[in-house]
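Task card 7
Instruction: Convert sequence to structure tokens.
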Amino acid sequence: MIFDKEGTTTIVYQEKNSMVTFLQNLNEGYENIKNDNIIVNLFSFEKLSSGDVLEFLPLSNKHRENGKSFVIVTDKVAYDQLPEEIMVAPTIQEAKDIIEMEEIERDLEL
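Output:
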């Protein structure tokens, strides 16, 4: 697992492991990045289902309750197959844009 910190955001990458291993490693490493906004890059996975993305929902909800953003990056899942409470973007740049908008909302207490 690779953590790439950029300011207040950490991008998490995975190299050639299963989704189960990736999620387990992310949960184990969460304490190190819990104070950052998190982007989870899933482009290394060739096959991905909406069920795979939903596996991140408990961690996403926990992180968002603490006032931080959690965005998953993939273009392999149709966004209408996922609940609104999990943020998904097709590119890293769009994930960064979502985080920027959410930070503005938090600053304005919206």
